[in-house]
Fold each of these.
Amino acid sequence: MLPANLSIQPRLVRFLRLRQLSDAVAWTFRVLLPIMKGFNHLGEANRVPLELKATINLPKTAFPMKANLPQNEPKILARWEQTGIYERIRQARKGSPTYILHDGPPYTSGPIHLGTALNKCLKDFIVKSKTMAGFDAPYVPGWDCHGLPIEIKVDKELGGKKLQMRPTDVRAECRKYAQKFLDLQRQQFKRIGVFGRFDRPYATMNPQYESVVLSTFFSFYENGFVYKGLRAVYWCMHDETALAEAEVEYEDHTSPTVWVKYALLDDPAKIDPALAGKKVSTIIWTTTPWTLPASMAVAFHPDEDYVALEAGGEVYIVASKLAGDVAEKCKLEDPRELAHFPGRKMERLNFQHPFLDRKILGVLADYVTMDTGTGVVHTAPSHGAEDFATGVKYGLDATSHVDEKGILRDGLPEYNGQYVFKANPIIIELLRKHGALLHSDKLVHSYPHCWRCHNPVIFRATEQWFISMETPMPGGAGGRGSEKDTLRTRTLEEIKHVKWDPSWGEERLSNMIATRPDWCISRQRVWGVPIAVFLCESCGKPLNDSAINRKVVELFARSGADSWFTTEPDTIVEEGMKCPHCAGTKFEKETDIFDVWLESGASYLALIADEPAYPWPSDLYLEGGDQYRGWFQSSLLCAMGTHATPPYKGVVTPGWTLDEKGQALSKSRGNDVDPVDIASRLGGEVVRLWVASVDFREDVVGSEALMHRIAENYRKIRNTFRYVLGNLGDFNPDADAVPFESMEALDQYMMRQTCAFAADVRSSYDEFAFHKIYHRLNHFCIVDLSAFYFDILKDRLYISAPKSPGRRSAQTAIWRIGETLVRLLAPIMSFTSEEVWDYLPKTAGRAESVHLALFPTAAEILGDAKTIAGATPGAGSADDKTGEDWTTLRIVRDEVLKVLEDARNNKLIGTGLEAQVTVAAADPVYSVLLRHASQLRYLFIISAVNLVQAAGNGTGGVRVEVKKADGLKCERCWNYSTHVGEDKKYPTVCERCSAVLEELEAS
Ligand SMILES: [Zn+2]
Ligand SMILES: [Zn+2]
Ligand SMILES: [Zn+2]
């Protein structure tokens, strides 16, 4: 628009070298407000006669430049606590539309870290911004208190003592441990400025919560979703419990691999006439030799091609695709192919177990793959999920002879009593002794490990409680989906109606729900909510009686889940109650507890039980990506089982918190950034600003250096507020505010800029794009305010008569800017906004805390809804025209400042006020400059501007010429003027200042 065609033609009459200004001033805006140095520097200020200095409206405010956040934030926290800010917000928003962000419960086993701080601050930004947008947005923080990690830690502390303790005593110890960290985390979250119902959080170990977990289970149970049965489930031998899919992580593990011969017992001619009379075997391949004692079958793929290879006088049956590899590994010499046949030929043939007196059945299975091994799979129904399913199909024995500690029982003396992995070499030796071992090797592969203790896990068939994914949904509840829907299909349908942010969440969760096995909800531990079901003493079957179920739920609500351990069955099961299966009359208590994911999955159900006015579903869940297999999923399933709809309308997922090299933060790595430590050294506000600065949907970087950069930025924002407050000392909005239409053009322009800024910030809050707010804020404070508007305003604010319309116009503008900024930033900069709020002028009806206020509307920012209805940015052509003018003026200004900078560097001038500038421009720029001619010298912060119309139309650039200003320097305002000395009464000041002094004297 304005190609630079600039030249400097200095016409220096006399070069006056000004003394270098020192930075040693009482307080200074430094780079932001360079002009102020002059007024405050002793040497320079002394040159302004004292009586003149007193007539300058220097900024004055008690708002400190140095924030001292670590010292001052606790004072603000104490005030919030004292005034009950959270409760007062609830009162203020009562009756407004609700917005419920439901908190995901962190685990109570340690202090908070940067990831939890990010999580809680994001939630706080959302809750506070919704609150200030006018919603009733309560926030009830929650904690996940039960579960293995705590029980393990308490086990360690108790040591051998635990064996002598009653379960309720162990639970009391666990409760103490959980409560300790709940209290710590609560205090830490509050320290970084998070608002919420902290005095009454939800905790999964609260009696009321425990009762909801149980009633959630009973909803599933009474609607036929639940079964108890023998299943091969992931089992941690270290923690002695079943694990859910979500509790298993894959890590590298070295396993032995064996190629084992299973001799055919039946007549081989049944497979193919070519095998008649031959000694035939098949070869299996496994990485878990310890499961061979449980081997019940060999599985073949029904449709794949198998080959019979003759070598060394024996015949071996393996998959054709793997025959070459097998022959090589097992050293089959000169193998000769006798016959080919599909795997289905092998069904129900009998083989010999390699070292046990057991017939092994030939079975068919689609999961047999042709990528590794032999294409023949040894099948131990007690030690594999697929094996178990095959076992059910063929009626195989699935009894586990591996106990909860992973010890082999009821076996041969060689391996009996051995830990499974220790049994591997023993069993390999046994195979060799029986001539069944054809080859052995080692393999490093991805193997399931316990996510708590990181030990390798095994599959083990045990009696467990399950929620079946294939159960038909009752009565077509929920309105969506079809009559034939199962828990799985209906859940998949409902996922589509949730807003996933980022959008990949939908596919991720759908894939998990589509493929997940039935939900194993039982655990064999103590610290959790008991599966409070009575079992028939004679047949072992559970009693499912809704009246009894209600009684137990009420008992839990009254006395907590501990009561299950102390209540005798006959106090709940009435006399005369008969087992519906065997008519037995004696009942015992189930001792398993629930999977903790069922507990946390019921959290919103527990919350609405406590706050019945809260809507179903909630508006938002926000947690890390690991919760797709955890809390997002279990919450969804619990909601489907009770309400047949998801518990959330939207789900947001932040990325991971990493260091600058992309590594996870950890104390042991030494790259840890502790948010509580940052709060104590730099301020909780710095932690909050850091959270706002990152694009949380990606992985985010946290580091000490970054926190310091954020703290530096914080100071810039703080100085913006300081400028505002410093210039409002004598401003009473009720009496002094200038209506928009009477404001100076520059002030009107900045009001519109502020409206545009507010609109951008509001829409960024709506899309949870806090990093956009952070960057927009920095730009607005630094570029629009400090370097442009505030810089220009200084002359008007300081030099004008205090009550002059121009100064009042400026004060009105910066007051409104301050009000706008403080409210828009309150959700993020909760501490500083509250601090600034106290310093801003009080007006009638103004809320006591910024957190009780609403976001400003455009009409509020501009000052009057009636007269300004059409004055919002882009609303009218007149505004657009003004906007264009200012865009042009700012571009010309930037060019002038560049030329002045060059002139300064060439020592042609000292300060800009020593300069006058000639600007030559063609239309349309010339016309714009002409329209604002009287303001140009103030815009450029120089003593005079001469405007020259250049030839051409729209093509020529702008020529800027700097020379020394004419006249003398005014002792009061430092502008140069040819009129200095004309006023005999004030001979050292310019005509503008003498008028001000005249006015001051008269008043
Ligand atoms: Zn474990
Ligand atoms: Zn019975
Ligand atoms: Zn002056």
Note: The longest helix spans residues 770-799.
Amino acid sequence: MNNMRATPAMNDRTPLQTETTVPARACCRLCDTVLRHIFVDLGMSPLCESYVSDEQLNAMEPFYPLCVYVCENCFLVQLQQYVTPETIFSDYAYFSSYSDSWLRHVSNYVDTMVERFGYNDRSFVVELASNDGYLLQYFVKRGIPSLGIEPAANVADVAVQKGVPTLVKFFGVRTAREVASQGKQADLIIANNALAQVPDLNDFVGGMKILLRPRGVVTVEFPHLMRLMEENQFDTIYHEHFSYFSFLTAEKIFAAHGLTLFDVDEIPTHGGSLRIYARHAEEESIPVGKRVTELREREIAAGFTRIGHYRNFSEKVKETKRKLLDFLIQAKREGKSVAGYGAPGKGNTLLNYCGVRTDFLDYTVDRNVHKQGKFLPGTHIPIFHPDRIRETKPDYVLILPWNLKDEIRQQMAYVHEWGGKLVVPIPEVEILS
Ligand SMILES: [Zn+2]
């Protein structure tokens, strides 16, 4: 077996590696400790947004390990980076403004922030990963000077058309210095669901420190690791999300860059998220609120400072897989038909991990016209228009975007007309009445 031992050439990049892969180096993205503990291993999986067209069906498809580690030193839960951010974001297909509920969420956020911190036409607001201007448009409407920083040129163009000034760049210390040197430090820096996709966390948060005015505020939203673990949301793990944060770990990252978390909101988005508020460590006139201490204590009590707590998660995930397969095998033995609803990224993690293909799930449907006519990555389950469900009358409809369960339950109530049933896979298989 020793003939696979590294030759001098294999110590460097082998000829097979392309610019989209990085050599395996299992060290913590935050503190550089060697990663020795697996949080959960979801096997090999394709990139969850790489939907397959008809012509690509017979071509090779790249799969990457979806193995998540936890750092024993700082407890950052993380994936190694297999694909460069340039590959993911240069022509990004995700436009935030497509979701009405998300727009309502950020419009409320803008109202709350203006009321709480009194921003006006002399303030300056910067959003990192500002996408298509979905959020900053509400500041612009109020006449509050704003700047978006967004690496994907195609979505940034849409923002500019809306009247949201946008810089097409990756954010980090360098970009922060460039903007700050023009006398443009920010009263408010916003980063929503961006932190998970940042390969160099120290550079990103270090940039915030430079860009922030003395009495300025940073707000950052990210899915809460505590909720991911409690509610078994392992399917929200994708290659594109490199890091998963507890409040404690987020606090450590910000503290390392001279930023103190002084408040936190627990919000329902993405299955349960946190919105943290940071200020310069020196600005002690802004006191640290009760909610910070309360959440910190709750996480410590739940075990987030003990490696064993993280290592237990794996077994829960395996049990979920067994339960989903039990249900599907039973349904098939009884001669029942099963279709899917939705083609979200999380569905792809779930189906690839569980090995569910057209042998169990005949097809899925999605309202997004760009996905219709394509196939799910890896599993090659075809995606149709939602009308297909009415036409084929399946016995079960498996709801893949379980976070929208209530909304979909209402929309799909008509499956009862032929005795069909709706099923959710997470936190565990449940047949909805
Ligand atoms: Zn670490």
Note: Residues 28, 30-31, 33, 71, 73-74, 76 surround zinc ion (CB under 6 Å).
Amino acid sequence: METAIKTPAIADSTAWPHYEFPNILAASDRVNWRVEDLIGGGKRLDFSMPFLPESLARVEPLDFLSENERRTLNQIRAHDYLYIFGLVEEFILPFVLDHVRSALHGNEARVRAFLNFAGEEAKHIDLFKRFRQDFIASFGTACEVIGPPEAIAQAVLSKHPLAVALVILHIEWMTQRHFVDSIVDDENLDPQFKSLLKHHWMEESQHAKLDTLMVQEILRTCTEEERSKAIDGYLEIGSMIDEGLAQQVRFDFESLQRVTGRAFTPEEFERFQEVQLQATRWTFLGTGMSHKNFLAVAELVQEGAKARLEAIAPFFS
Ligand SMILES: [Fe+2]
Ligand SMILES: [Fe+2]
């Protein structure tokens, strides 16, 4: 019978980014903010402004929509953003808790950094929910969403931990990219929504590093065979998410119809699908999959992963 070979050499190679738990913990303690300071009381969303940057929303190519309708679609997409981030954090939270629980003694900075990570994700779930409540209260029309989150979380968590950790790493770098590439310099966004994106980015910056360490730790426990299937597992979760996104785009079209009261032609529906499916794919899949830091770790997990993912990423751009 063939004996499984462990891979400590790969997991401990000096090619890995050098992140340290005490520094990450210190940054997390410094950044810490409260949900109450971002939403609620006098702090409300301003529906006269767009919420998402155009590079993620891609409403401008839809020239059969008026300016007001394009802004409304931008806001429907922002509602998806709140919901989908809340949804993915539903599986990140238990995954990180399970991971830290596997070694609770001996490295206090590690335990505290991972517990902060989990606590911050629980806070983000609350943050996204409260923004959604404010959105729903003002928007006036229900926006249907995919789910339920628990079922999606269960489906993702049924995959190998190495694949799940890679998906989480993708999500963390994706959040960094959204803010740095398209939000920080955008002066036209609603200040409240922009503040949410900024504060999320501030804490996710530590998560991206912790996730890299988490992938590295999980890799130390994996056999060659498990490692060789990691990218396949990551892509399987990706295609599951992609199916959900396609359904979400159909819901968004229905929401837009409901709120504008317009009847669109079949050609307009087709154009909407074409532009918005790619916009949604870019937002949640392409921006993470093609992030250079994510690709670097994927390559350390499995040789050839970078080229493989770079060949697939344009499908989500
Ligand atoms: Fe988060
Ligand atoms: Fe995170």
Note: Residues 92, 121, 172, 204, 207 surround fe (ii) ion (ligand 2) (CB under 6 Å).
Amino acid sequence: MTTAIAITAATGALGGRVARRLAARGVTQRLVVRDPARAPELAGATVVAGEYGDGASMREALAGIDTLLLVSATETEDRVARHLSAVDAAAAAGVRRIVYTSFVNAGPEATFLLARHHWQTEEHIRASGLAFTFLRDSLYADVLPFFVGADGVIRGPAGDGRGSFVTRDDIADAAVAVLLNERDERDGHDEHGEHDEHDEHDGHDGRTYDLSGPQSLSFTDMAAILSARSGREVRYHAETVEEAYASRAQYGAPEWMVDGWVSTYTAAAKGELDLVTDHVERLTGRPATSFDAFVAGDEEGLRHLRSLGR
Ligand SMILES: NC(=O)c1ccc[n+]([C@@H]2O[C@H](COP(=O)([O-])OP(=O)(O)OC[C@H]3O[C@@H](n4cnc5c(N)ncnc54)[C@H](OP(=O)(O)O)[C@@H]3O)[C@@H](O)[C@H]2O)c1
């Protein structure tokens, strides 16, 4: 029996990767996007409109769907409400399982403030009674080159904290394995997700996977890799929290957003991004990509680093 799969956020970097992989595998899918005109054109894909915060649009978009990949929304002040609305719509539409892209160490007291949004969403999904799989992604390796300022400096209050950055491609491969119910070959080992009452349906139901890179790196280590691969000097400057707020004031961003940015670094300082697992490998059958290997092939990031006027 084919499972009806819906993918959200196919206009975005991660959702688009998942959708393209499924299409390449000949899988039929429904793409739920805010603006159908911007959806990728893929064999076997139908496109429907849906905004997480608009319950009616999501209920209609998800009718007849068994498995939903719910990609977390772009950061807004009301992001959690939008997520909860999407989950409620999925339940009302009769979706059986939600695969949700969360964040490592999501929790009510997470230092990274946006990880608290993920925890609230996870809790709502658990309470919905739907089957679920949480893909708790570490910080994307892909975004790190864009943390480098115009002067070649990564600034933030991370101290010498470390992070295990994961690539979007690895997350997409892992997501496909979960969506297609490809089993973890070493099932039953040590991931922290426990099997739950949905276990009879599927080996990934009720599980939480922490998707990390293969090693933890400090921001100094990362800057050295970015320097070596781009041929341009990149340095890390460990700011104090006060300095971090001062250096970001120029962007005129709302307070909740600046708090989110700064807390990415303070989470690293507290070790909350320092989590290396083999979950990418267990889901995809190959090791997670190292930061160095990723940067070596990251044309967009390298172009960005070489374009910095300094
Ligand atoms: N782990 C990390 O380091 C990290 C870094 C950045 C972001 N994230 C999170 O991971 C998600 C996916 O990452 P990405 O790189 O693919 O981001 P992205 O390229 O910005 O894509 C975000 C996607 O989500 C869609 N979307 C946003 N808000 C929505 C809403 N309220 N209802 C329906 N669709 C919505 C967007 O649709 P439109 O095209 O219509 O805007 C877009 O397709 C992000 O949205 C963010 O929550 C994680």
Note: The pocket of NAP is lined by residues 8-9, 11-15, 34-35, 51-53, 71-74, 82, 101, 103, 137, 139-140, 143 (CB under 6 Å).
